[in-house]
Specification:
Layout: E1 2-11, E2 14-24, E3 29-33, H1 40-47, E4 55-60, E5 63-64, H2 70-76, E6 78-81, H3 93-99, H4 108-121, H5 123-127, H6 138-151, E7 156-160, H7 168-183, E8 187-192, H8 195-201, E9 204-209, E10 212-218, H9 219-222, H10 226-232
Parallel strand pairs: 3-8, 3-9, 6-7, 7-8
Antiparallel strand pairs: 1-2, 1-4, 4-5, 9-10
Helix pairs in contact: 3-6
The structure holds adenosine-5'-triphosphate (ATP).
Length: 239
């Protein structure tokens, strides 16, 4: 589904991602974990064409998409749910959701079917259909951001810190939703600082440190990796 090969990105002269390689298989959930500033968001933005790389390549569904535009990524089904949600606060929940479908050529019936699915998945969204997105709680906003991403009919859903700033119960709910999305056959690439939860749902994981991928393997194995656990003490609930 996705093959990133030796990808490098920089902000000016500062290298943020240094020759990173990773793959995501069809229907697979892959976690990208690492501390603040490790380069996770930069790498994810590159996958959907928001950030331009200066070296390496990105293949998606078997074709080279290095340098594609965000519009091309959306049309191809590679959808980013960004860190911080980035909803439009002065627009209603429904309008924010509809934005997820604007770059696709969907019929009214397809849009309404998609909205129905999202209502079922996120009952809280249904209750607040016409409320302004900016007046929702953090957790509710995260559900709308996930819903908006699903409106784009992802084949590869890229989630950047979906649990950031949420209460523990909501964190659990977010990861339950990730599992539901995976079960629908959508591949998921998820960047998280909540390492234990991310490794709990992912099949495989990559560890990023100072722009580089320093470790990878089956999530279940990394979950008990002593070096990884000690590295994340203080930013994750390691028991
Ligand atoms: P976090 O979890 O805190 O978002 P991250 O692992 O996602 O961290 P990035 O946001 O990708 O890390 O940041 C990687 C590096 O690039 C950091 O050193 C950061 O300061 C830098 N950086 C990120 N965005 C910009 C920007 N727009 N301009 C300049 N430097 C940036």
């Amino acid at each position: 589904m996705l093959k990133i090969d030796n990808l490098s990105l920089a902000y000016g002269s500062r290298i943020a991602v240094d020759r990173a390689s990773l793959t995501v298989g069809a229907g697979e959930c892959v976690a990208l974990v690492g501390a603040n500033g490790a380069g996770k968001s930069t790498l994810l933005k590159a996958v959907v064409g928001i950030q331009k790389s200066f070296g390496g390549s990105i293949q998606y569904e078997g074709r080279d998409v290095t340098g594609w535009t965000p519009e091309e990524a959306v049309r191809g089904g590679a959808i980013l749910c960004p860190e911080g949600r980035h909803l439009f606060p002065e627009m209603s929940v429904r309008d924010n959701l509809l934005l997820g479908a604007t770059r696709l050529t969907l019929t009214k019936a397809q849009i309404s079917e998609k909205l129905d699915e999202i209502e079922t998945l996120f009952p809280v969204v249904r209750e607040r259909w016409s409320q302004l997105a900016g007046t929702l709680s953090g957790g509710e906003q995260q559900m709308v951001a996930l819903g908006r991403a699903l409106m784009s009919r992802p084949k590869l859903l890229i989630l950047d810190e979906p649990s950031l700033g949420l209460a523990p119960l909501l964190v659990e709910r977010v990861f339950e939703i990730v599992v539901t999305i995976m079960k629908s056959g959508c591949a998921v690439l998820i960047a998280e600082q909540n390492v234990q939860s991310a490794l709990g749902v992912a099949h495989r994981a990559y560890v990023m440190e100072a722009g580089r991928i320093v470790k990878s393997g089956p999530a279940a194995k990394l979950r008990t990796d002593p070096a990884l656990l000690s590295a994340f003490i203080g930013i994750d609930e390691v028991s």
